[in-house]
Amino acid sequence: MRTIRWTAAAALAFVLSACTGGGSGGSGGDFLVLRTTPPNNGRLYLNEPIRIDFSTAVDLTSADLNTVSFQVFDQNGDALTERPAGTFSLSATAGDASVGRQLVFTPLFPTNNTYDNGGFRPGRTYVVQLVGGDRRNNTVLRDTNGRALAQAVSFTFQTADGTTPSQLFSDTRAGGPRMTSIQISPRDANGVALNKVGREPVEIRLNFDQPLNPADDNVPVGVSADPLVRVSADRGRISLEYTDPAAPTPPTWFPATVELERNTREGSTVVLRPIGVLPNNALVSVIVESSVEDMAGESNVQNAAYDQIVATFSTRQDFEPQYDSIVEEFGASSAMDLEAAFLEPTATLASGKLTASFAFDGG
């Protein structure tokens, strides 16, 4: 491991010694690396990007995981076959008025409870190699004038290690996450649709001002679709409640699947999709509890002014008789599973009375 780090440091020092300072670049001269963030042997949180400043504007189409390659090592210095995942983009280097001379690699954020399936992983050493020189197969970084990177560059960095969000991720914004906007569809002047089978499904999108901790005890992505095992105690920190205007009672939880659709340094989007038909003529509250954490583990628990009801909406007043069903015909019953769970609660029809076949949340 010492040899790898020495080689990376020596290569970077050699190339950077031939480069100019951090002033604005022109169209003339060689295409060179000026600086990297993190610097050689630096440290990076799992949600932080790599930034590389060049002497001239970068051709973004030439940047991929072949021209900017990664070698990955564990804490024992053993090579791993992991391949970082993320996106390349361009930004403005310090002092520039226009975008172009800074190449940015932003890693994908993890989505699991152990935070180890993202673009960068905890406790790793990464050796980044920027391909340069005269490459006839076009596997080389180029500037917008078509010039290849004059000298290959390598640098090394380590990722944060730990098991908690505060250890692994940088805080992109002070304070706990705040919802900035909400979109609900389908919706018209009469209210939100009732989520009938075969119609456009109802979706509630919540946009937040910063990334969220993806663990399922924070964003409840594991709500069961099976009503036999689903209980309101498992609703999680983001949920839906409804009240009946004609019979005001304590709010009732309405189950919904939850997806963390977008999670970036700029913000995040959570999508709630109600399970089953929404109640008719009901006032639905969108709940985001104060304990919901951002990517670095910060919440709004200490904010006394925080209101967990972040939005409300009304469902349509469809009082006329109606029903919702799906009818399918099969040639044989051999492939049918009569014990399979339905997304909606089952019912019992006996003695002219329709009742639920088991006790379930919502009465």
Element string (H = helix, E = strand): HEEEEEEEEEHEEEEEEEEEEEE
User: How many strands appear in the DSSP assignment?
Assistant: 21
- Shape, please? elongated
Main β sheet profile:
5 strands, mixed
Ends distance:
63 Å
Tally of helical segments: 2
Work out the count of structural domains.
Answer: 2
Mean pLDDT: 87
Question: Class of the largest domain in CATH?
Answer: Mainly Beta
Quaternary status: single chain
Query: Strand order across the biggest sheet?
Result: 2-9-8-4-5
Weakly predicted, low-confidence segments: 1-25
Beta fraction of the residues?
Answer: 25-35%
Defining key terms:
four-stranded antiparallel beta sheet; five-stranded mixed beta sheet; elongated; Immunoglobulin-like; 2 domains; single chain; mainly beta; disordered N terminus; 363 residues
Lay out the secondary structure.
Layout: H1 2-17, E1 33-37, E2 42-44, E3 50-54, E4 68-73, E5 79-80, E6 86-91, E7 102-107, E8 125-130, E9 153-159, H2 165-168, E10 179-185, E11 187-188, E12 191-192, E13 203-208, E14 238-243, E15 252-254, E16 256-264, E17 267-274, E18 283-288, E19 309-314, E20 347-350, E21 353-356
Parallel strand pairs: 2-9
Antiparallel strand pairs: 1-3, 3-7, 4-5, 4-8, 6-7, 8-9, 10-13, 11-12, 13-17, 14-15, 14-18, 16-17, 18-19, 20-21
